[in-house]
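Appendix B: complex inputs.
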Amino acid sequence: MKVPVAPPRRLVEVEIDGRSVRVPEGSTILQACRAEGIETPTICYAENLTPVNVCRVCVVEVEGARALVPACSRTVEPGMKVRTDTERVRRSRRLVLEFLASSVDLSLAPDLHRWQEVYEAHPERFGALMEPAAEGERDGREPGRHVPVEPGTAETVAQPVKIDNDLYVRDYARCVLCYRCVEACGDDAQGTYAIAVAGRGFDARISTEFAVPLPESACVYCGNCIGVCPTGALMFKTEHDLRREGRWDEARQTVTTTVCPYCGVGCNLELHVQDGEIVKVTSPADHDVTSGHLCIKGRFGFTFTRA
Amino acid sequence: MFGAGGGTSSYEEVEHTDLIVLWGSNARETHPIFFHHVLRGIRNGARLIVVDPRRTSSAAWADLWLGIDVGSDIALANAVGREIIVNGLHNETFIERATTGFEAYRDSVMEWTLERAERVTGVPAAAIRELAHAYARADRAILCWTLGITEHHNAVDNVLALINLGLLCGHVGRYGSGLNPLRGQNNVQGGGDMGAIPNKLPGFQDIERDAEARARFEAAWGVPIRPRYGWNITQMFEAMERGELTALYVIGENPAVSEADAGRIKRLLASRETLIVQDIFMTKTAEMAHVVLPAAVAAVESEGTVTNSERRVQRVRKALDPPGNARDDIWIIAQLAKRLGFDWGEVTPRSAWDELRSLSPMHRGMTYERLEELGGIQWPCPSEDHPGTKFLHARLWEEDPARRGPAAPFSVTPFEPPVDELTEEFPLRLTTGRRLDSYNTGVQTSRYRSPLRLGGAIEVSPEDAERLGLREGEVVRVSSRRGSVRAPVHIDRGLRPGLVFMTLHHPEEVETNLLTIEATDPKSGTAEFKAAAVRIEKLPAGGAAAGGS
Amino acid sequence: MSASPSDVERAAVDAVLGPPGDGDGRVVRGGREVRGRRHLLLPALRALQARAGWVSPGGLAYVSERLGVPPAEAYGVASFYAMLSTRPRPPAVLHLCEDLACRLAGAEELAAELERLHGPEGEDRDGRTWLRSPCLGLCERAPAALAVHAGERPREVACAPLGQTELAAFLAGGDVDGGVGPAPISAPQTADPEGWASLVLLRRVGRVDPGSLDDYRAHGGYEALRTAVALGPQGVIRELKDAKLLGRGGAAFPTGLKWELVAQQPVRPHYVVANADESEPGTFKDRVLMEHDPFALIEALTIAGFTAGAERGYVYLRGEYPHAFEALERAVAAARARGFLGPDVMGAGFAFDIEIRRGAGAYIAGEETALFNSIEGRRAEPRNKPPFPATHGLFGKPTVINNVETLVNVLEVLRVGGPAYAEVGTAESTGTRLFCVSGDVGRPGVYEVPCGTHLAELLTLAGGVRGGGRPKAVLLGGAAGAFVGPEDLELPLSFESAREAGVTLGSGVVMVFGEGADLVDAVLRIAAFFRDESCGQCVPCRVGTVRQEEALRRLASGRTLGTREDELALLADVAQVMRDASICGLGQTAANAVWSAISRLGVFG
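Resulting structure:
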């Protein structure tokens, strides 16, 4: 069988934290760090999406570079000298975590809690958190103008949750603007482009055109945005409701991998079951068929098993 | 194809090909995750050409969309073939080496000039020419089709007409070039793999012609196997008409709703001496049954394997306990066998699978452990050190004739228009298909609350809506030569005048199959769901709700 | 979203995109062909804005359909630019500059006056309103405003200086006058017969008819292109290298090397781009060049195209420069008519043409990769680098991108030759430079002096500090630059001296703050500016610019969290992460001026 193989990849030698490391050409610094067992925090990075390097929590110091560089997207070059443990790196990571924790509700992002501890982040030093914005207020903000908050308070993205359909909710008070949902909805998987980043600066937000409700948008409810959201801003309605009722309990959940019973593509599904009910459906990001992405039927079409 | 029935390519190859042709397939909605691979191919530089009567959401991504008349696919394919040949764009080396019947094929398509094809298909000659040249000139090309090709009275000829094109250009048997039917249901491929077709033993071993295989199964099963093809579903209903088939055991099918000309089907089912239905729901068919056996949901409440459209065998696993008395299909069948006097002992999905591996060479290397480890394996996989097969028929490219094996035959595919003719009385062409959020007869999908749901609407072009004075949502009467239903109108800009569209998803609202025609393909037994002739009539003001009548 | 466009919106979009094709229900050519037109998105949105006064849901839906751009993405783009409005806006808008130079000239008093006479910012009264605007690049004539009239005959008029009379005229429903100021007002040296002889970049400003190609040629125009053709691309690159010409946009990259890198790329096509998105507060030199000598830019960009092997060039012009746009449009048309642009330029056997693209109110679009995204019809978000524009620029292809002033320097390099060019200026900073002197000085304007000229000399040239004496502070390089104090007036204005002193010349801003100036106000304005202009893509800049402004306002109001030192330490942290971890130059420099005011001038001391 003549299956073309990719051209052979050479190994590149780089230095990370003083250690000599050999990784395949084209690897990112992040991949090299992970291969070396060097823990590197990430937020916007996901293995099934193109790196957008916007959160900047993975920054490292590269000798010769004026600014720090994002490990998730910078590819290694021969002889590159990388440091992941300098004061500059630690300070930037701490500040990024403080910036997010002081402006976004991270209560459903356990990884980020851990990283805040590791980097000794103190988000409270930026002042008392602002009251949540009125419904729709942030959606109407115009680029190039803003009203400063009262001195002593810290501006946040707090706002009411958006519930406009039966399948999933959007709680943008939890949104770190990592672009993952936009990528999954657009170029990296679904190609639907129902949502995009709108507005500018701190008022940038994930939005449909003119912030119309999802049922009026191009959304096809594949839920691939939920699948990649790292902070719980996008969530199955089932999970949202169970959480509100205080019944969501991951400790009591099992996850079973099976194959979708609908069309003939053969997508792998991970069924999250609690108390004999399917409460959430995901797909493994590393599976060749789906790369972690599903359609509306695979993602939501399972309530029949509870009938 | 050429023996083993399965798509020749892997999804991965769609990402690395130069041209993707979707012919009679709205993969964007019917195979959404396959379409993700198509999108990656497009991003990597592939061109996409879509052949479909409707300007679908798949066509929205196409570099070129050809809005063909329903059922004129053979005319189009033959014209494409002729155009390729007369321009000397066919792959002479491949044809010479690996095919038979080229001359007859060539002669048969010579009458299909671009001009004639334009008259028959409605597609301008220039666009047909563009398709032909794009396909023939591509270094790699993948041609995919779905039910738009197979749900016709001449389904097999439709498929053969497309295969001819692949052979003509050598677009098969190489990485990134192939011929691929996209399977409509999660285990249609697996059903064929397991011999749930009238003419094959498991592993696509021919029941009449392959005596060696037959002997192997007889030895393993301890029963004689008659070397005779069984009936396909259409033949079964014909046999019922003739009184030859009196008892029916239906597993996981809902023919009372899903078959064309539903009125006739229901009459035949209702008059069986014995009707046993094994299903996860009390379907319309089950309601008519003498015995109903409640079954577990295969993908969710039981263990086993399924095969997808790229021939990848994957494990399904049990996540939930089946409700009440529902049982695994495999358990039910084994119990039934036991009551009939065959004690198979304890049959588990795994023991059944291991038996299959011992009898089907193409599955031999697929142990449960390897399926687990590799995330599924694509057949054929003859041994436990074999990685599985990304694409089929690489042998056709071997220089050594001995290794090349049997040649792939061209077929002569005469064009026949759809059986249900358009007339003044029935001037509109009704075609059917799926919508993104729904599936088949809606037994499963009608139970979740999709914001996309259109219900049992009949979709019409803006032009026809205006001509007939129809408003969005207005309930109208739709009639064919066989029956009549009431359905709400949905105006779709993807339709051209004269073409209307319905789905089978909402039989409780609109029984579409009262309209469709039971003109079936003699070779595959598939009915011509895709082409009925209908008319639309406005109801008197205050007309009743949607439904059958 | 199923909103429909009005007939006038449809017509406005069709005027940009051409009439829609007629699908016959049988064949549609789409895909790549349609998606390849996405770069027309911003021009189409601008057309809607100009016709209807806002980008309505119906108008956006129509643009989306025509270009195959998903509505959410088109909205993401429309809502990125301050000059586009996604909410209904009155057809007549007076954009009042509230930035640094205009503040020194009484912009806040004008705002108060507008509020008194008209009502709050944004309020619609008889189809008119007023809005605050960041720097309009009219600093030499501060205070400034830009009057924009949407409608059948859309008009944009720069108005500076804006006095009570003009303001009253606008509110009364009339037009404001203004537009291009006489050259000697914007570039005072050009009025002085003696000083004029030493001018290089400003040589033709005020002496040539900007609308006449013949007049341009009578003043030495298109001689440099002829020289370039005679030298060939390699020769041009050699002259640029010998000239040691460094980019004037802020990064000081060697121009010869930049052109050579692109010329060598095997991937085709190549592009050349003139970065005319002059948006750094206090900067207006490129505007003066383009308004008064537009052919110079056209000729220089043609040389860049010839040298780098590009057949297409873009001028990306900031949206707030209507008069520069008119001048360039005329110049491009004239050059095309005379064969200086087109399939066979000057009969020399190479093809080159230029398209002018207008921004729509986004400082970040001046960042070169953000500028590419803007041309491509995307949000003007900077890209991560590497890869650099030389290999992955506009449309992902090898691209030369230069600031306007840099390009115009190329004409001089070819006129006198590289070595002779290098004799002017200092060893490392060759040639002359344009400085935008504004604020509290006697004669604000664009001044051309050899690199290395002392700051004090430049101020003297500009008539000294208004009212006499020494300045309280001088802002060098704009909002992304740094403040220096009166003790720094001997600073030589060269790349190397600036670097040594820990400041930057940036885009040539020299803004003078006299004794009475309110530096706290200036610092707060700079912080607000960055908060408004951050694209929002990366966390350090998106949140950092907010936290910086909050801390400064706490300090200014006396309501600190903890001690003053705590606040300064917090500001230092914020400054550090923005500098170290932001994607682009905006975030990396967003704390520079603020921090220099604190550390050099002791503003919150």
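The longest strand of chain B covers residues 484-491.
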